[in-house]
Every structure is written in C-alpha cells, then in structure tokens.
C-alpha cells in the first residue's frame, strides 16, 4: 500500500507539472504555432509567385529582427554567442540568418534559457511591431496601449478571456485602418515593415528543437518542486496560476502579430493568384 501511495504521489506530481507548464507557457506556444502556420502559407504563396526572390523581398528586415530575438535571449540567459549572421544571401541551404551559441549544460538556468532563446523571434517580432506603431503611428499606438491597460489584468486566464484576441484585433483595425492613416505616408511605411516582420517571426525547426530542451528542463524542475511541495504539504498550483496571469498580456500583444500575419498571408495569396493568371495569359498568346 505504501508503494502504491508513493506511485500515486509521483503520478499526481507529474500531471500537476504538465498542467503548470501549460499554464505558464501554453499560450506563447500556441501563438507560435498559429503564426508559424500563417507564415508557412504566406511564404509558400510568395515562393510560387516570385520564386526565392519573393522570400528575399521580406527577408531584408524580417530576418535580422528574427535573429536579434535569438541574440537578445542568449545574452539574458548567459549563453556564449560564438557566431552571428543577421542576414545572408545566396546560401544553397536556404538559411537566411543564424545565431550560434554555447552554454553550460550543468546550469539549470542556462538550460531553461534554451526555450526562450528558441522562441526569441516571437518577442522581437511583437516588440518590433509595437515599436513601429509607437514611432510611425503614435495615435494608433496610444489607442491599443490604452485598451490593453484598461482591459487586460494580471489574473488567471480562462477560456472566456480568449476574446482578448478578437477585441484587440478589432481595436487595432479601427485605430490603424482609418482614412487619416491611409493618407499618411508613415502608415504605408509601417505596413511594409509589418509585413516584412510578420513574414519571418515564426520559428524554424532548429528553433523548435532548441526550445524543446529548455521545455524539458522546466518540466523536470517543476516536477521536483511539486514532489518537494507534496512532502512539505505545500500546494504550488495557486502560485503558478497567479504567475501565469501574464498570459493575458501575451494574448493581447500577440494579437498584433497574428493580425499582420493574416494580412501578409492574404496579400501573398492575391499576388500568387495574379501572377498565376498573368503567366497563363502570357502563355495563351503564343
């Protein structure tokens, strides 16, 4: 009976650790998956329309911002950066940029850092979009910042709170796509930058592989904490749920990246259909 009790305690701690890990990081992982799917379609349409040149049209700013996201997280988590290419052309393997780094495998902090280094482009992409809004369309930035400040709170995230995505996108559309902005040259500059950034925010296979190592380390750490908490009679779940309240802010800010990823995909599809029709018409003349 004692063995069964120990086994039950271990299984409960494992399940609780999974739940806590998802509470802490599930939202940013899901956001990354959504943006990744949208970007994959966008780049596929651009490639069909213009070949590799189509991808390079957006890479000139999107790729450096992507790699800077990795680079910043390397510094935060104490990794040693050995080589950086923010942008490179004419590579046979299709790699447009990279950040090579090393870390101390005996350091739990640095191992956890692998997760955040891997998803760094999500932070740099979203941050760059917000900075672009602030500098080029300050009135639109003020509207979205005011909404987030008033409506989003550091409380436990529920299914009902997913409406934050739709509401943030609605506020963003109303504040950005106005007649005043359409006549403002800075709007068009921002739109071009936003499309370039959104086309290169998603994570590569290498990014995901690196993140998995850090995710596993965090799960093991949570599992050990929950085992110790069970022995001491302490419930860690309420604390983790309170800490996970920041997910509401992630949803709000990530909605901006999702919106422009959708816009990029739609424009890429339109360009693909137009070029396909033009090619068909051109062939029909001969």
Describe the structure concisely.
With 286 residues, the chain is mainly α. It is built from eleven helices and two strands.
Which stretches of 5+ consecutive residues score pLDDT under 50?
none
Give the mean pLDDT: 82
Number of strands: 2
Distance between the termini: 85 Å
State which percent range the strand residues make up: under 5%
**Class based on secondary structure composition and strand pairing:** mainly alpha
What share of residues is helical? over 70%
Task: Please provide the ordered H/E string of secondary-structure elements.
Answer: HHEEHHHHHHHHH
**Which overall shape is indicated by the principal axes computed on the Cα atoms?**
globular
Strand order of the largest sheet: 1-2
- Computed CA radius of gyration, to the nearest angstrom: 22 Å
Total of DSSP H or I helical runs spanning 4+ residues: 11
Largest sheet at a glance? 2 strands, antiparallel
């Amino acid at each position: 009976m004692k063995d069964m009790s120990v086994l039950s305690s271990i299984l409960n701690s494992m399940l609780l650790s999974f739940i806590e890990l998802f509470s802490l990081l599930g939202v940013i992982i899901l956001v990354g998956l959504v943006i990744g799917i949208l970007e994959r379609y966008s780049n596929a349409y651009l490639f069909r329309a213009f070949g590799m040149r189509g991808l390079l049209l957006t890479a000139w700013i999107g790729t450096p911002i992507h790699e800077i996201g990795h680079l910043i997280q390397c510094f935060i988590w104490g990794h040693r950066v050995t080589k950086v290419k923010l942008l490179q052309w004419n590579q046979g393997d299709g790699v447009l940029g990279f950040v090579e780094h090393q870390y101390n495998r005996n350091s739990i902090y640095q191992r956890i850092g692998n997760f955040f280094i891997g998803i760094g482009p999500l932070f740099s992409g979203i941050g760059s979009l917000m900075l672009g809004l602030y500098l080029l369309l300050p009135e639109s930035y003020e509207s979205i910042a005011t909404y987030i400040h008033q409506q989003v709170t550091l409380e436990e995230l529920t299914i009902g709170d997913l409406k934050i995505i739709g509401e943030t996108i609605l506020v963003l559309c109303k504040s950005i796509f106005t007649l005043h902005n359409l006549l403002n040259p800075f709007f068009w500059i921002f739109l071009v930058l936003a499309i370039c950034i959104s086309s290169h925010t998603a994570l590569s296979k290498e990014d995901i592989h690196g993140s998995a190592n850090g995710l596993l380390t965090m799960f093991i750490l949570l599992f050990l904490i929950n085992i110790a908490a069970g022995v001491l009679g302490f419930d860690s779940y309420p604390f983790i749920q309170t800490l996970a309240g920041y997910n509401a802010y992630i949803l709000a800010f990530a909605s901006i990246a999702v919106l422009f990823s959708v816009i990029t995909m739609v424009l890429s599809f339109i360009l693909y259909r137009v070029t396909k029709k033009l090619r068909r018409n051109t062939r029909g003349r001969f």
